[in-house]
Design goal:
single chain; 154 residues; alpha+beta; Immunoglobulin-like; four-stranded mixed beta sheet; DUF1573; signal; Ig-like_fold; DUF1573 domain-containing protein
Length: 154
Amino acid sequence: MRKLITVFALVMINVFFLACNGSNAAKKINKENLDKAVTRDADIKKGTASISFDTKMYDFGTVKEGEIVEKTFKITNSGKTDLVITNAQSTCGCTIPVWPKAPIKPGETGDVKVKFNTSGKPNRQRKSITLTTNTESGREVLTIQGSVTPKAKK
């Protein structure tokens, strides 16, 4: 019985060494993928992008119905990696945002321009513009508000 156990153990040891010796894992690594992973990991260690605003709220006061209110929000990339705004969406079609499509480098600034058409929007108004970004929260909200004096009824 001991002889049988010894033979079985020797066979298993040979199988183990032959299996490990037959494949060289280092040869299977794609150098290009490894370089991409190193670059990606370095970017991740920098942290997420961070955004700062001159203001997140704009009160346009009182305007007459039919006027177009315009506001340019100044944004600054206060992070250590490129800031990317992938979308800007308002709460209604009367408010049109225009945002920088190119990445904003750390320390650089950009403009988010907002136009609000007051036609058909009398009385108190409050419109939000949601920016989809690569910041930690993933979204930032800007707001414009004010009063619209209705047109005189004829």
